[in-house]
Amino acid sequence: MPARRHRSSFVSTLALDLVGLGALPVAACDRDAEALVARPLPNGFTRVDDSPLLDSGAPFVGIIVPQTHAAEFAVTHARAQSYWTPAVSDVLELGRTLRGQLRRHDPDVASRLAEYRFQVVGVVRTGRRLLFVNGFCSQPADWHERPVRVKDGGDCYFRLMFEPSSGAISEFSVNGES
Question: What are the boundaries of each domain within the chain?
Answer without folding.
Answer: 38-174
